[in-house]
Every structure is written in structure tokens, then in C-alpha cells.
Amino acid sequence: MSRGTLEQSVLFALVALGGEAHGPAIIDEIEKRTGRRVSPGALYTVLERLAEKEQVEGWIGESTPDRGGRRRKVYRVLPEGARALQAWYDDVRALADGTGDLLQALADEVGG
Hints:
By secondary structure, this protein is mainly alpha-helical. Helix content is 59%, strand content 12%. It contains five helices and three strands. Helix 1 (3-16) packs across helix 2. The chain is elongated and about 55 Å long.
């Protein structure tokens, strides 16, 4: 996954998870939706970059019994992140508009 694609995947995963989640849940969501593995190192690098762009924020959440009382960092999408993701999504939809049948025909070509 390219850097930009991973940023978009992280934002989409956060949105799908209700707007906020911890790292392992984000990784699981991306893998569930794309079938691609994401390393924790890559995820946290992207989350830091998105935080620098003020598209996400992170904080230390409450302790939970299932974690033995340990706390974990939670991230949420900020309005700037939602706007950036919406703009990207709108651009992709506009570019793809009307190309579905042709794309499928090209993908189905044998020996192309």
C-alpha cells in the first residue's frame, strides 16, 4: 500500500469504526476490508503523520478489565481528516464515473 493509500485506509477504517478506535482495531478493520496486512509500525507512523496534519487526534483512553487495567491510545478522525477523505472520495468517484463497464471488459480480456 502506498503512503497516501494507507492514510486513506486508516481514515476510512476510523470512520467505519464509529470515528474513533485504538491501533489494533484499526489494523483489523483495514485487513478485514482490504485483505492486506498492515504492520503496527506503518500504522503508527501514518497516525503520527495524520495527527501532524490535524486530521486525527490521539489520547490515552480509560483502563479496561480485559487489558488487565492497562490503558491504550485511542484515535479519532477530526473534521479536517473527514474533509480530506471526502474530497479524495469525490475525486475518485468523478474520475471513475461511467468507466465501470469498460474497466470490467479490460479486466476480463484474455491474453491482453
